[in-house]
Amino acid sequence: MKYRLSVFIAVSLATAFFLFWIQSTLDSVKPDSNMPNCDKIRQCLKAEYMWPPKMQYCPAALAPFTVRKRAQNDKWGYSMDYERCSTEQIVAPRFDVAEKFGNNGLAKVKNENKWGYINLKGEEVVSLSFDEMGDFYYGLAPVKSNGKWGYINAQGHMAVHPRFDAVSGVWRDGLSAVQAGGKWGYIDPEGETVIEPRFDQVMAFTNGLARVETDGRWGAVDTHGKVVIPPEFDVILLTTDPGLLLVAHNRKYGYFDAKGVEIIPPLMIKPVRMRRDGSGAIQINLNEFALAPEGGNVWSDTVPLNGWFYHNATNEKMRFDENGKAQIWRKGTWFYISKQGRLIPESAQG
Predict the structure, then answer these.
(1) Which residue segment(s) compose the domain that 298 sits in?
(2) Which of 23, 108, 164, 256 holds its CA 20 to 30 A away from the CA of 296?
(3) Is 37 part of a structural domain of the chain?
(4) For the segment 135-160, what is each residue's pLDDT rounded down to a tens digit?
């Protein structure tokens, strides 16, 4: 028992000393916020050679503007040439093309028509063996080899073997669009097909929906490929509210929410401003008369249209009648909207 206790104490002391050494190392390479930019870069370069901090403190100092590329003998390399700092070579000029360093401490370079990525020491993290390459997003970069596209990670390992005709970047939800046989679908970061390629065009997912196009008509699908908004619109656009989608059909406009629920059918002559109040309820601004029906009459005794109106609320709301004409609710009565922006009581319309 005493032997075990002694071993435990020895291991604990060794661990504590090791952690103290790591923290001291980290503190020694952590750039001071008041330190000149050149010194920050030197510290970050020093950290690159030390274990374990790696790029822990460096991205803000390095990307994207403090490490500059310089041409020499028609070749490009990297040097510290920033503000009042003296020029210091970081990577010797030997590349045909050299792009800026990113937040992950890697830079895309090209030699003899082949692309790869190097680190701050000039080492090839991703070998210069690809015909084309994209930028890193969420840890993966698209690469093209032998006419096909796949994805590679920042350690230089192939994450998705090149087998697609075209690919997108990696998006926030973790899904990427890929093209095979002339159609687009989606895969996950492991390369597994999540939505089979069956669309002519696709867009990024936003709030769980992606806009997709088939035979010239746009709709939306969820992350499982289920059709949430039917493909029957000329266009579907994002709005300033991430929970609202603007749709257009035959030059008339409407709105859907992020769950695919129709808020306003495509009957407006132009889009209106929409927002959510503090409780999340949808409000619609009718000041611009976008909902005015064609051929409306002017009524001298009606109330001018003005302000924000709630959608499906009890106090102020809006709807369309069986002929597609817009109505709003005010003080217990439904009103039509004239071209001049005046309210016409429903009872007087006939």
Answers:
(1) 272-350
(2) 256
(3) yes
(4) 988 889 999 999 999 999 988 999 99
